[in-house]
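CO-FOLDING WORKSHEET

Operator: S.A.
Ligand of interest: dodecyl-COA
Run index: 191
Mode: holo prediction, single chain
Checklist:
[x] sequence pasted
[x] SMILES validated
[ ] output reviewed
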Amino acid sequence: MKSAAEHREFVDLVEALRAAQDTITGASPPEDVARKAREGLEEVTRLLAPFTVSEAEQLAGYLITEPGHAQALAPVLHVDESSTEHVRGRLVLGRYYLGGNGAAHGGSIPLFFDDVLGRLANDGGRGTSRTAYLHVNYRKITPVGQELRVEAHVDRVEGRKRFVVGTIHDPEGDLTVDAEGLFVALRPGQP
Ligand SMILES: CCCCCCCCCCCC(=O)SCCNC(=O)CCNC(=O)[C@H](O)C(C)(C)COP(=O)(O)OP(=O)(O)OC[C@H]1O[C@@H](n2cnc3c(N)ncnc32)[C@H](O)[C@@H]1OP(=O)(O)O
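OUTPUT RECEIVED:
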């Protein structure tokens, strides 16, 4: 397991990237400011490109003790309570995940659940599995910029099949989304 303690600066870099994604998404800057910001981002790419590594050596997504696991793709779950069978926590969807009219983009929700349910599916010594399906029911708009409650648990395991379910509730306590994922354990040698 890669250690977040040894890569604090990288963890902070990804946190800064998330903040940049939110800020860029919500900004309407004058052209000269947009150009300066682009040059700053290009400088980041120039700085990091020589340190590109293989997937096995990659840090993003693999610093698993960190909220969001040091990757900027999926929304971050802040875990309050967890076991190998369940997880409870909080989620704030930033401006980056805005769809329209204050509601989260529909695609951001399965992105979130694939990560959260997938990790639960693989937890507890169950080993690696892959998403066979992810069913998401949108019951009410999921607001961005507000603290949401998340719950997920392993519903049942049938041979290689792991069924994992999850919910999101808004600050009023209303259910906004429920989801079910089927994760199929990989056979030896299966990619
Ligand atoms: C970065 C940090 C890393 C670690 C962090 C990890 C957390 C993130 C997790 C993300 C995981 C992903 O997104 S993975 C990426 C997205 N998913 C994929 O790319 C998967 C692509 N699909 C596949 O590779 C394959 O189809 C599998 C592995 C899912 C299943 O193929 P298989 O192994 O040949 O198994 P197969 O015999 O077909 O099916 C086994 C059983 O499951 C059932 N089954 C299979 N698919 C379905 C289905 N869609 N709907 C219903 N049932 C299904 C079959 O009927 C059968 O039931 P029965 O007859 O036995 O009853």
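REVIEW:
Helices lie at 8-26, 31-48, 108-122.
The first strand starts at residue 77 and ends at 82.
[x] output reviewed
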